[in-house]
Amino acid sequence: VRTQVGIVGAGPAGLLLSHLLYRAGIESVVIEARSRDHVEQRQRAGVLEQGTVETLIAAGVGERLQREGMVHEGIDFRFDGTAHRIDVKWLSGGRVVTVYAQTEIVRDLIAARVGDGGVILFASEVICIDDIDGDTPVIRFRHDGSEHTLACEYVAGCDGFRGVCRDAIPEGVLTTYRRDYPFAWLGILAEAPPGSHEVIYAYHDNGFALQSMRSPRVSRLYLQCPLDDDAVDWSDDRIWSELHARLAADGFALREGPITQKAITGMRSFVVEPMQYGRMFLAGDAAHIVPPTGAKGLNAAVGDVRVLAAGFEEFYRRGKSDLLARYSDIALRRIWKVERFAASLCTMLHRFDGDDAFTRRMQLADLAMITSDPLAGMIYANNYAGLPFEV
Ligand code: RFL
Ligand code: PHB
Questions:
Q1: How many other CB atoms sit within 10 Å of the CB of residue 129?
Q2: Residue 151 alpha carbon to ligand 2 centre in Å
Q3: Above 90 in pLDDT, residue 45?
Q4: Which ligand is in closest contact with the Cα of 283?
Q5: Cβ neighbours for 282, distance < 8 A, ≥ 6 positions apart
Q6: Residue 220 has pLDDT above 90, yes or no
Q7: Sheet of strand 47-48, all strands in order from the earlier edge strand to the far edge
Q8: pTM assigned to the model
Q9: Cβ(212) to ligand 2 under 6 A?
Q10: What is the largest CA-CA distance in the chain?
Q11: d(CA 337, CA 348)
Q12: Best of 121, 189, 285 to mutate for ligand 1, by most ligand atoms within 8 A of CB?
């Protein structure tokens, strides 16, 4: 089997890339380790930047997103037991974010690819990629117990943080930048209406808490917890009691309901440079990770894919490889700003073991600046609603 662009991974990055290439008349095959069901069920991101929404609509996959997505014009920071709303729309010059689950985007993109006759090989685990610095890289994968190969002109490594594409790049080429945080998030889904329209970011002495949503009837909530905690140690009662304590504010009533999912996720900041080598391009979590505090991971993946798809289009339509050659430079300029935003929010909002009273006061002063000084608020709102795309 042969194709023009072999794509490893059917997460948002790989699926959107395949869809954009199809619209530009470029062939691709997506190879995904997990089943379609698994990929469509996996609970992850929820907050979409305005530019992500516009990208999906322009690509013809925004119909359900426009119908079901929940538009948010502000967010709510909680500290000192008080709610402080930031008017993101006003401070960012009219831009908003939309709450629409990553699982829904993945479903929409898979339906579009399948509807257009696209090839997504599910339950096919890529083992290695040969010859990425030759003319015809070969992707080796396992399906139903036997080994197969896909020869391609280019490979897009969209296989997430734990994928294999990054490791196919020869040693010594990549420089890694990383910071691991000494805590985790316990994330839950609950069949309960969110207690407030806004997404809530709460700073509390017991640790950070976040209230988001998946629909008017389903809440998505997170609690900072120790890195080595196990989700089974968190009974429903313990979860609700911590959420009540950390999210408390005048006039706010957290709504309880059956908890349908619990999972713990560690947090890190991570970037590799460059994001390309030979005929391999890395996009999304395969190249960079942000702590989830800024809600940026999926949005960052979309930013990469815009540049990469435009690069392939310029190459296959007009025979110019200029944009492809500059892919990593262009993508990284935006990524480092996104990394800065996510790391600074993470540091401002969490409780770190051994924090002294001075550090806690500094965090509170940062929060006071963002929520009361319009200039600080504008910088925050511009980042939250999404930085501009170069391509
Ligand atoms: P994905 O989604 O991880 O997809 C990679 C795909 O590659 C497959 N794969 C392989 N396939 C074949 N062979 C192999 N050897 C393979 N190895 C891996 C995997 O099965 C998978 O299907 O990466 P992608 O496409 O780059 O997308 C990135 C986003 O998923 C991620 O950044 C976000 O979910 C991060 N994130 C958030 N981002 C936001 O923009 N807004 C948010 O509100 C937000 N909240 C979150 C988040 C991530 C979270 N977790 C669980 C890490 C909240 C949480 C709790
Ligand atoms: C979510 O809705 O899952 C979500 C919202 C905001 C974040 C992270 C995750 O910062």
A1: 24
A2: 38
A3: no
A4: 1
A5: 157, 158, 165, 166, 272, 275, 276
A6: yes
A7: 47-48, 97-99, 70-72
A8: 0.97
A9: yes
A10: 64
A11: 17
A12: 285
